[in-house]
Design a protein that fits this description.
This protein has 246 residues and is an alpha+beta fold. The chain is rod-shaped, with a radius of gyration of 58 Å. 51% of the residues lie in helices and 18% in strands. The chain is built from six helices and five strands.
């Protein structure tokens, strides 16, 4: 048998094995063909078996991944108690913090008290101004007030004494600046109710106003922060006040 015939016989035998077609009598009589057919049939059967195994493997779901094992609990750490020296240092530090906290509280209380006194001073000045307006002649510092006043001046409290059994204070002032009249006595003394000058102390700057026909001030401003805006208004009103009659 030539090589060409041998190759054709193998191809025919392989095709017959793959298609599983019935063999003819002539093919069965050919010993070489039958040998190739049996070999090809065995190979095809093995291939089909392997393909079946692969197909089943692909069809089956993948096995679940094993759950991770929990990490072992860490061994307990032995806590070392602080030595006496360290405990003493902690106590000293804690005591220092307590002292600092107490000092902060005291400073805060002092600040609140200071603010409270300032608020009382502001309230007193506002009350005086309202009383001044109610008495007629315009608000303190206005041209109308200046025209109807006999004294408007600034000074400094040199003495503050409470009259026994009363809420009145005897206040001595050293006058430093007169607006109306242009000049006057350097030392003046008045009796005023404590509610009109809350918190007044020796050394505090004071601005007063006295209307015509009265002897006591009807307006008090205590402290530079209360005097400054009134001073500006007085200065701006003086020229116009000189043209008015009360």
């Amino acid at each position: 048998m030539t090589a060409e015939n041998e190759g054709r016989t193998r191809a025919d035998a392989l095709m017959a094995a793959i298609t599983d077609e019935p063999l003819t009598d002539e093919a069965r009589a050919d010993a070489a063909f039958m040998a190739e057919h049996r070999s090809a049939a065995a190979d095809v059967a093995l291939l089909r078996e392997q393909l079946g195994i692969i197909g089943h493997a692909l069809a089956e779901p993948a096995p679940p991944e094993p759950e991770p094992q929990p990490a072992p609990a860490p061994a307990p750490v032995r806590v070392r108690r602080p030595s006496r020296a360290r405990r003493r240092m902690f106590a000293v530090a804690y005591g220092g913090l307590a002292v600092a906290a107490a000092a902060s509280v005291l400073v805060g209380m002092g600040w609140l008290l200071t603010q409270g006194e300032g608020a009382h001073s502001d309230a007193g000045a506002a009350a005086d101004k309202q009383a001044s307006e109610a008495g007629g002649g315009g608000a303190f510092g206005s041209p109308q007030y200046l025209a109807c006043s006999r004294l408007v001046a600034e000074g400094e409290a040199t003495s503050v004494e409470r009259l026994p059994g009363t809420t009145s204070l005897r206040v001595a002032l050293h006058m430093s600046r007169y607006y109306k009249p242009d000049k006057g006595e350097q030392e003046l003394t008045f009796v005023v109710d404590e509610s009109l000058v809350p918190g007044l102390r020796v050394g505090d700057p004071v601005l007063i106003g006295i209307r015509q026909g009265t002897r006591e001030p009807d307006f008090w401003a205590v402290g530079e922060q209360n005097i400054a805006p009134e001073r500006a208004w007085i200065t701006a009103s003086l020229a116009q006040a000189g043209k008015l009659t009360c």
